Amino acid sequence: MTNPVSNARHNCSELEQNDPEVFAAIAGEELRESVGVELIPSENYTYPEVLAANGSILTNKYAEGYPGRRYYGGQEFTDKVELLAIERAKQVFRADHVNVQPLSGSPMNQAVYLAFLKPGDTVLGMDLSHGGHLTHGHPVSHMGKIFNFVRYKTHPEENGRIDFDELMAVAKETKPKIVLCGYTSYPRDYDYKDFKRVADEVGAITMADVSHIGGLIAGEAMRNPFDYGFDIVTTTTHKTLRGPRGGMILCKKEFAEIIDKSVFPGLQGGPHMHCIAAIAVTLGKALQPEFKIYAAQILKNSKILAEILMKGGIKLVTNGTDNHMMVMDTVQSFGIDGKKAEHVLDLAGITTNKQVIPDDPNPPLRPSGIRLGTPAATTRGMKEDDMVKIGNWIVEALKIHDDEKALSDLRSQIEAFCVQFPVPGII
Ligand code: DSN
To answer: Is ligand 1 within 6 A of the CB of residue 105?
Structure first.
């Protein structure tokens, strides 16, 4: 990599002059994001307009409360911005009501649990190693200690199917208040009507955490849980949606008040108005026809990347993908754990993340797999032909995993490829 500071394109002369250390770190990150292939499926390159709103003076303002009923004066413009975000989110997701104030994914889900549950109440959520999230009740999470999360599993060898007869029996026995579906490392789609059937049988609320696929739902490339009668949908805004870091809770109108009270004053203080402005911009983009094309391309790229990896002898969890991501079993494929595989791919200039696989015998910091996906690469304009190249490079890098010289040569090839695809927001 060339010297990041001499190569810096970050546009802030005061920062460069007055805090060269932070400036240099940001410049280094800009360069890193430009010269490598970004395949972490929860990451993306946001829009220049989002960077402008997110870096705006709206960060100066306290705005506890909601539009029209705040605890501080001077809310003329914050109200406008928040209402724009809310109205656009309602349109994008066909939701009755939206709260755009959650600071990110964890408080977003916490606010939902705290709205409806008392300590000890039961939630059915997906097991972490099968694709669920920490906030879906993993025992190390605070929510996992307060509430009784009963974690269901998938059948990875049957395309990741969930056995709904089994889930129904568990629901009848444990009487959950919330039936939760949602994932961070599950490479398939859900059949929401089955979850709804289970929840209705036991009188539970249906909640879908679609953080990973929010943009794919917005772009109508994947199913929308509201079309199946779901009560609550949560999503972060910085993954497939391409927005700033943040979260949203979308719900049926009968839950509007309880959700709003749970977010503020129940859980959070002042909303981050600069982020909310950036979320409004993001949702404005999601309403454009081009966003549908983008969402569809993410899935096309994911399909072909999965095919190339499998053709190269890599075992994928569930043997493929229906969404933007896939999980490789690197122990089975190459005899190396996910920590080593992540490092090898880093050396080659391909960024991924180590990942537990279903019922992984290995620990989370040295798991058996790697998770990867196509949203960020698609944002850069990479298409099917490019995925073929990237897939073959991944196979090659993992095969030559102990040959640092060969990995370094591969990295030069990958850097030369990447610089042909500009990163939005980096001039
Ligand atoms: N950390 C996010 C992810 O990578 O999936 C979820 O919170």
So the answer is: yes
> Can you list the alpha helix ranges (DSSP code H) found in 221-329?
256-261, 273-286, 289-311
pLDDT digits (tens, 9 = 90+) for 227-240: 999 999 999 999 99
**Has 228 been annotated as catalytic?**
no
Residue 196 lies in a domain: yes
Cα atoms in the Cβ-side hemisphere of radius 13 Å centred on 4: 19
**Residue 209 annotated among the catalytic residues of the structure:** yes
User: Is residue 152 annotated as part of the catalytic site, yes or no?
Assistant: no
Angle at 278 between CA 85 and CA 182, to 5 degrees: 70
Question: The domain that contains 135 carries what CATH number?
Answer: 3.40.640.10
**Is 20 part of a structural domain of the chain?**
no
The catalytic residue among 64, 307, 396, 415 is 64
Give 42 Cα–ligand 1 centroid separation in angstroms. 6
Q: Which of 50, 92, 38, 47 is nearest to 301 (CA)?
A: 38
Which residue is closest in CA terms to ligand 1's atom 4?
42
Q: Which pTM does this prediction carry?
A: 0.96
- The residue contributing the CA closest to ligand 1 atom 3 is 42
Residue 138 CB partners (closer than 8 Å, separation 6+): 128, 132, 144, 149
Catalytic residue among 32, 90, 193, 245: 245
Give the range of the structural domain holding residue 323, as residue numbers without chain letter.
Answer: 296-418
Q: Whose CA is nearest to atom 2 of ligand 1?
A: 42
Question: 336: domain CATH number?
Answer: 3.90.1150.10
Number of structural domains the chain divides into: 2
Q: Which of 151, 197, 239, 340 is catalytic?
A: 239
Alpha carbons 205 and 47: distance in angstroms, whole number: 35
Tens-place pLDDT, residues 145-157: 999 999 999 999 9
